[in-house]
Structure formats: structure tokens, C-alpha cells
Design a protein that fits this description.
Low-confidence stretches of chain A: 310-318
Shape of chain A: globular
Helix content of chain B: 10-25%
Mean pLDDT of chain A: 93
Strand content of chain B: 5-15%
Order of helices and strands of chain B: EEEH
Mean pLDDT of chain B: 81
Radius of gyration of chain A: 21 Å
Structural class of chain A: alpha+beta
Number of strands of chain B: 3
Distance between the termini of chain A: 21 Å
Largest interface: A-B, 58 and 42 residues
Number of domains of chain A: 3
Strand order of the largest sheet of chain B: 2-3
CATH topology of the largest domain in chain A: D-amino Acid Aminotransferase, Chain A, domain 1
Radius of gyration of chain B: 16 Å
CATH architecture of the largest domain in chain A: 2-Layer Sandwich
Low-confidence stretches of chain B: 56-61
Distance between the termini of chain B: 28 Å
Structural class of chain B: alpha+beta
Oligomer: heterodimer
Shape of chain B: elongated
Number of helices of chain A: 8
CATH superfamily of the largest domain in chain A: ATP-grasp fold, B domain
Strand content of chain A: 25-35%
Amino acid sequence: MTVLILTSEEDVTADMVVAKLHEAGTPMMRLDPADLPGKAVLSAEYAHGDFDGHLSVNGHVLSMGGLRSVWVRRPGEPAAHAPHPSPWLAAETRQALYGMLHSAATRWMNHPHNAEQARLKPWQLRVAHLSGFAVPPTVFTTAPRLAQQFAEEYRDVVVKSASGPPPGDPGLALPTTLIGPDADFSAVAAGPALLQRYIPKRADIRLTCVGTRLFAARKTAEPGQVDGRYGETGHAWEAVPVPERVGRSVRDYVAFAGLAYAAFDFAEDEEGIWWFLECNQGGQFGFVELETGQPISEAVALWLSQRKADRRVPARHW
Amino acid sequence: MRPFTLNYAFPRGLTNVVTPYSFDAARQLNVLPDGRPAVSDPDLLLAVGTTTSTAGSQTHFDD
């Protein structure tokens, strides 16, 4: 039985899991959907009252009957590396690849349907509330007047993107930024704005959830630092225990969202409360493991290798 | 009108990282020039920065 990893070739965080799978002798295939068609070859057959399918790339072959699990890590856009890529070719290739994979009886980290929903920031906040996390007051709005009122009520608020920086070359960075009520909110009418009450923090927390295993890491923040991803603090990530209450909320969240993997970001305030900021269903873990030594890649490899169904993640039945 | 959120964007600067490893199709992971897996050198991976939470932001918003 084989583990399928959908990611790009340059993804060295995936390498960490590949190395663990090799050590355990677990068969695996690494495929970038961008290489299909071309370097990778696909064939799915619905004939004789049955279904079967095959994938091959770089001399490795995978039968859908032997597929144990799929890790959707950092897959490229289907057909992106084709000689003549186009939106139509990408759509056709997506149909062929993901249609075939969905037809197989396999485990997903994470299931694409659940992943798509889990990426929606407003939905994340709703699930976080239901799971018992402390969630900062937040507004998504295209109404300048409401944005102004929110900023006046909470004084120190941050603005951040829900979907990340806009694609393009040269690239843009779009860090979470502190703004005040004096900002000109008229441009809120030109695009939804995400405003959130600023949480003065003494540390950033990254909690990685793999199946039922939780790995929390803490990085001391500089006074006034807003976005922990930007700016040097002189501090390193260090492993910390997961408070029992937070652990319960994390488990409730991933069960509700149907996620086998999730990376949570929290802001730890002066009283030690972990405020939920977001949950990245495909969040990075390489930097955390490299700095803390937490065995996250081993946990991912183990989850992907397991034979049994993960009862915590809702199974999809025909 | 420029969307409000984009008022706080700025150029990322040079983003083309030259990585000291290359993909080995047979082993299905990246290797150093001496053949060792790139993941066997954690200090190098940290220095290159390709495992950080902003490394994939241009193509994926799962940081």
C-alpha cells in the first residue's frame, strides 16, 4: 500500500516526511499535479463494472487499488508545466486527477472538500468560537462606515488579508498591520476588509495538530510586534506544553472541520491567554521542527502509513 | 479605487532563492551535491528559509 504526496519538487518540508517514510520502508509516490500531463502519466478506467486507475512519474507507478493515503501538501496547479498551459487544460487535468483520486478508497490529509472550507477565514472564526477558543472581535466588511465604527470602538485594530498577498511578479508582502481610527476607510468599499482587535502579545504560538497529536511551539515577541512572520526578534521557537483547555478546543475544532492536519496560530497575551488568530489547514511545520526538534514529520508519516481509518475524521462513504 | 487592505502591501524584494540542493527523482527528495538528503542538514535548511511560514505565500496561502 502506497502513500501519495501531492507537492512540488522543491518542497523540502515534504522531504522531511519522505525521509521518514523511506526509513520505515513505506512505499510512496511524490507527484506534482503541475507535471501532468507530461512528466507524469495518468489512466483511470471505469469498465467491466469496476474502477481502476494508475499514476506514474519518474519511474514510480501507483495503482489506485494500492493507494493507502493522500497528503495534499503543496500541489502545483494541474498542467502548469505543460508546454501550452491554459485554464481549460488545467480544468481538464484537475477533473482527471482529482476525479480518479476521489474514486479510490483512501485517507486524506486533508480531504479537499474539508480543506476548501477550512481556508475560509470567517468560517474559521465561527468554528473557533464554537470550539471554545478566545477569539478577538473581528469584522469583515465592504462598508467604510462600519469599518470606521469598529476601529473607533476598539481603537487599536489590525488589518490583514483573508487570502494572502495578491499573486504576481514582483511579489508583494502583506503582513498584518496595526492601524488606528484615524485611517481613511473609504477604500474599504473597493474590497472586503478584515479588521480585528489588536492583541498586545508577549509571544506567538504555533500549534501543529497531526491526527490526535499536538505540538505547540512558542516564540517570544518583541514589544509592539504585530505579525510574527516578519521581523527578527532574536528569539527562537521553543516547544511548550499544550494547556488542557486549549487541547480540548483544538480537538473539537479539527473534528468539526474534518481535518487530519492543521496549524493553529495564537497570540499569547500578558495574562497567558492564547487568542485564536487563524487555523492553516496546510500550514508549514518545517521551521518549527527544525528549531524545536518536535517530531512533526514523523507524526505525519505515521498518520499517512496507518492502515486503520482515523475515526476522529469523518469518513466519506458512497 | 485600490482595495483598503492593499494599502498595507509592500514589495517582497528579491524572492528567488538559490537552493544548494536539487531534486532526486529516484529517491523522490532533494539532495545535496554530495548525495546526502537536504533534510540531513537542518542548519542549511534554516539558513535557506524554504521551510518558513512565508516561504510558500506567493503560491499558497496556507502559511
